[in-house]
UniProtKB/TrEMBL annotation, chain A:
The active site is at 149, 191 (nucleophile). The keyword Cytoplasm does not apply. Keywords: GPI-anchor biosynthesis, Signal. GO terms for biological process: attachment of GPI anchor to protein; GPI anchor biosynthetic process; proteolysis. Heteropentamer. Part of the GPI-anchor transamidase complex, consisting of PIGK, PIGT, PIGS, PIGU and GAA1. Interacts with GPAA1. Interacts with PIGT; this interaction, via a disulfide link, stabilizes the expression of GAA1 and PIGK and links them to PIGS. Belongs to the peptidase C13 family. GO terms for cellular component: GPI-anchor transamidase complex. This is GPI-anchor transamidase. One of its GO terms (molecular function) is GPI-anchor transamidase activity. The gene is pigk.
TrEMBL record, chain B:
GO terms for cellular component: GPI-anchor transamidase complex. Pfam families: Gaa1. Keywords: Disulfide bond, Endoplasmic reticulum, Glycoprotein, GPI-anchor biosynthesis, Membrane, Transmembrane, Transmembrane helix. Heteropentamer. Part of the GPI-anchor transamidase complex, consisting of PIGK, PIGT, PIGS, PIGU and GAA1. Interacts with PIGK. This is GPI-anchor transamidase component GPAA1. Pathway: Glycolipid biosynthesis; glycosylphosphatidylinositol-anchor biosynthesis.
Length: 312, 612
């Protein structure tokens, strides 16, 4: 409904109704929690996955202060990297997703299940710096992206522990009860990823996964110069899709569900929208992936002392 | 009631065991041999596959360009080697330094127990030269080794050339996470032993070496290169190491994967694998390859410079370049690329190779048999010994009614003595066989016109033969043994052999199996009642010494280089001397095992044969 910086006709609606539609999506700020859970050089692709989503999210407007980036290992400075200080997502080194100003909040061994859950629920010790906190409120739309090695009902962290789908669902319920999110988009790119969103029960959650239970998510982009697979298929095509999104794009969630069909992904991506209160077609990609500042030009004065009813 | 606690059923079981003992033993023996031969049959084997996740596939880009320059360096090396009359230490140090490595040398010397035919003097002195390529960004905690031997004459010049060429190429890459040590060792295994002992601060064999000035962290894997021609037609992988130890199968898998990727012909045991496993000739080819591996493993000697690394839990293999009459030749650049690919993959390792098998047999480079599949062959042979022991136990526990023996109470003490005496005497003979050859070589050389090596070997054979004459007269001197005393001795001997062979097979399956093949029939069927002359002849044929003689001839046949009897005999003598030398130099266990344990055990059975 609202556009940034473009001229439009004088709306026939009452300014108050206009203002109501102004808040139709319900969120005022965006956060992103991007987690890569695997370490070791041969899991290069998981770090590249996470960094490509980080890149898209930053490009679309979410600042570093609102992104919690957790990378379990340092691929850019790994001794085995023939191109130090880079992480590529396309073979032939087309795109360096490590970029110039990446800010990693949780690095290496700090990426644990406990830290991840503490970030989500906000139960962090007082000494935790602001960059490591998820300071969301009840008007925040949060994007949570997980990648790594997973199985039916669990995700492996750091080769030593696991988070189960029950724990994750309970963490989201804690977030709901503490009013820490308005809407939450959960994307997971692991083997049997759909099992991770099976147990969700809190409202306003939408989830996407790269493969169904019993399927493996496959890797993509084998690069001989670097000697590893650079990306996973689902995130590779997700990145391609997101490269076409700009801040004023009107693409909605239904387009996101079409990313990486079985012919490209080999596995069957899945999604879950039953807990989401809005129609997915009305949820824009930029509602979660970008931080869009809405600007409405109006000639009239609007009285904000009365409550504005949003039209959903 | 249970099967064994019900007296009726127990009696039935016991009578079954005693009646059918001989047939079951024969069936077990044939089943064991058939199982072993069936191991080479391709449907019973598994294809090799990479087990280590960190090494993954062969997804690297090999770019080594400088094969011709490497060969030129090899020619320079050869010229300097001739001029120096041995290892050209100064030239090697200068060349490695110019390639940006940290170069160190190690001097070593070793006094041989007797001079063998290669080194015709008692004292061997040499120098190892090694250069360390430090990983650009990594801590110095892990290392990989590439070694080439400095051989006399024209051998292995190209190997040193390729080594130096690779060193220069590797120096320009930034992705090394481990230090790479380029080692040129003198006097093959002796130099390698000195280097390894110096590196790990151990001194197990009494060698004299100067301490190593530079070190690179714990070694994860090592490859030894033997290349004596400018072009090769195939690359051979040698796996067998000291005491029959084998490197992790993943190393062989890595080599095979890269051979397939680059398109080089690769062999193991020098035999190219065939695709027609269902034909008789295809199957026999696989059997020959497997038998070669079994015999090499049983000999317990390291078949390449890599063999000494295995003791330190460093996975190592030797790659030999073979130049035979084939049309398609591989040049040095391709060999360099293959090694580059292997080292890049080994570079990715995070832990030591441990995911794949340590105990296996390979009927070809693409198929393997793991320990779970080949152990039953030995188990069936060991079962014969246990059945025999059970049979004897039953016979001893229930004396037959027509027995004219003295009552059982009188049997106990002469029984123990009648067993102890042969045991002690045979083991003393074993100790004599172990110690006399080396100690008496000077006396032998004074009295007979033979060289030291021949003196040692002939003394060993003389002691062995003297042992045949010794035991069966000792009893009459001491006391009159009871009638059934031989049964107790045989029971002890059979169990002793079973334990001995079992332990040997666990460590070195091939040695255990070959000894079992010949000694188990001896143990099972020898009694004082069998015809003496014929059984004595058969026992001598099946004794360890003759087994070794036949193995030498068989080994030459399998390698398609059959020898005449005289040449075979000389080869046999050299094998014995090499075995004694290996034990003294590197700690090979085959010679002490045979002399101190297997030979006395065999003598016990000889004693039983001539029991009166």
């Amino acid at each position: 409904m609202s556009l940034t910086g473009s001229t439009r006709r004088f709306s026939p609606l009452v300014p108050q109704e206009n203002a109501g539609q102004f808040f139709s999506s319900g969120h005022t700020n965006n956060w992103a929690v991007l987690v890569c859970t695997s370490r070791f050089w041969f899991n290069y692709r998981h770090v590249a996955n996470t960094l490509s989503v980080y890149r898209s999210v930053k490009r679309l407007g979410i600042p570093d202060s609102h992104i919690v980036l957790m990378l379990a290992d340092d691929m850019a400075c790994n001794h085995r990297n023939p191109k130090p200080a880079t992480v590529f997502s396309h073979k032939n080194m087309e795109l360096n997703v490590y970029g110039d100003d990446v800010e990693v909040d949780y690095r290496g061994y700090e990426v644990t299940v406990e830290n991840f859950l503490r970030v989500l629920t906000g139960r962090l010790p007082p000494s935790t710096p602001r960059s490591k906190r998820l300071l969301s409120d009840d008007r925040s739309n949060i994007l949570i992206y997980l990648t790594g090695h997973g199985g039916n009902g669990f995700l492996k962290f750091q080769d030593s522990e696991e988070i189960s789908n029950v724990e994750l669902a309970d963490a989201f319920e804690q977030m709901w009860q503490k009013r820490r999110y308005n809407e939450l988009l959960f994307i997971i790119d692991t083997c049997q990823g759909a099992s991770m969103y099976e147990r969700f029960y809190s409202p306003n959650l939408m989830a996407l996964a790269s493969s169904q239970v019993g399927e493996d998510s496959l890797s993509h982009q084998p690069d001989l110069a670097i000697g590893v697979h650079l990306m996973d298929r689902y995130t590779f095509y997700l990145l391609e899709f997101l490269e076409d999104i700009h801040p004023s794009s009107k693409a909605n969630m239904n387009d996101l569900f079409k990313v990486c069909p079985k012919s490209q992904c080999v596995s069957t991506p899945g999604h879950r929208t039953d807990l989401f209160l809005r129609d997915p077609g009305s949820a824009l990609i930029t509602d979660f992936f970008g931080s869009v500042r809405k600007v409405e030009i109006t000639m009239e004065t609007i009285n904000l002392t009365e409550p504005i009813h949003s039209f959903r | 009631m249970g099967l064994l606690s019900d007296p009726n059923r127990r009696r039935a079981l016991i009578s079954l065991l005693t009646r059918l003992n001989a047939p079951i033993c024969v069936v077990c023996y044939m089943a064991g041999v058939a199982w072993f031969m069936g191991l080479a049959f391709e449907p019973f084997t598994l294809r090799t596959y990479m087990s280590e996740n960190a090494m993954g596939s062969t997804m690297v880009e090999e770019r080594f360009p400088a094969g011709e320059r490497a060969l030129g360096t090899g020619r320079e090396f050869s010229a300097h080697k001739k001029k120096a009359g041995g290892m050209p230490v100064d030239w090697l140090v200068k060349t490695m330094q110019s390639r940006g490595l940290e170069v160190f040398t190690q001097r070593f010397s070793r006094r041989l127990p007797f001079p063998d035919e290669d080194k015709e003097r008692y004292m061997v002195k040499g120098t190892n030269v090694y250069g360390i390529l430090r990983a650009p960004r990594a801590p110095r905690t892990e290392a990989l080794v590439l070694s080439a031997p400095c051989s006399p004459g024209d051998d292995n010049n190209q190997a040193v050339g390729v080594l130096l060429g690779l060193a220069q190429y590797f120096r320009n890459q930034v992705f090394w996470a481990k230090d790479i040590i380029f080692l040129v060792n003198e006097h093959d295994l002796i130099g390698m032993q000195a280097w390894l002992e110096g590196y790990h601060h151990t001194n197990t064999t009494g060698m004299d070496w100067s301490p190593l000035q530079g070190r690179g962290g714990s070694i994860q894997a090592a490859l030894s290169l033997e290349l004596s021609s400018d072009v090769v037609t195939s690359l051979d992988l040698v796996l067998e190491g000291l005491n029959g130890q084998l490197p992790n199968l993943d190393l062989a898998n890595l080599f095979y994967a890269f051979c397939q990727k680059i398109g080089v012909l690769c062999t193991t045991q020098g035999k190219l694998q065939r695709n027609d496993w269902d034909s008789v000739s295809g199957y026999s080819h696989a059997v020959q390859t497997m038998m070669l591996m079994v015999m090499k493993q049983a000999s317990g000697r390291p078949w390449g410079d890599h063999g000494l690394f295995l003791r330190y839990h460093i996975e190592a293999a030797t790659i030999k370049g073979i130049n035979s009459f084939r049309q398609y030749k591989t040049d040095a650049t391709t060999i360099g690329r293959l090694l580059e690919g292997m080292y890049r993959k080994l570079n990715n390792l995070l832990e030591r190779l441990h995911q794949s098998y340590f105990f296996y047999l390979m009927p070809s480079l693409s198929h393997f048999v793991s320990i779970g599949y080949y152990m039953p062959a030995f188990g069936l042979l060991a079962l014969i010994l246990l059945l025999r022991a059970l049979d004897l136990w039953i016979q001893l526990a229930t004396p037959p009614t027509f027995n004219l023996n003295p009552p059982p109470s009188q049997m106990s003490s002469p029984g123990v003595l009648s067993v102890l005496t042969p045991l002690v005497i045979s083991h003393l003979t074993g100790v004599a066989l172990y110690t006399l050859p080396i100690h008496f070589q000077e006396i032998a050389v004074e009295h007979f016109p033979v060289s030291e090596t021949e003196a040692v070997v002939l003394t060993a054979i003389a002691v062995y033969t003297a042992g045949l004459a010794l035991p069966h007269n000792t009893h009459r001197g001491l006391f009159v043994p009871p009638f059934n005393g031989w049964k107790v001795l045989k029971l002890v001997a059979v169990l002793y052999l079973a334990v001995l062979l079992g332990c040997t097979a666990l460590i070195n399956f091939s040695l255990g199996f070959i000894l079992a093949l010949t000694l188990v029939p001896v143990a099972a069927f020898v009694t004082p009642d069998v015809p003496k002359a014929l059984s004595a002849f058969i026992m001598v044929i099946l004794s360890p010494a003759c087994t070794l003689l036949f193995s030498v001839f068989l080994f030459q046949e399998l390698q398609e280089m059959p020898v005449s009897f005289l040449d075979g005999w000389m080869l046999y003598l050299s094998v014995i001397s090499q075995g004694i030398l290996d034990h003294a130099l590197y700690g090979s266990l085959v010679y002490p095992l045979v002399a101190l344990l297997v030979y006395p055990c065999w003598l016990l059975f000889w004693n039983i044969l001539f029991w009166k």
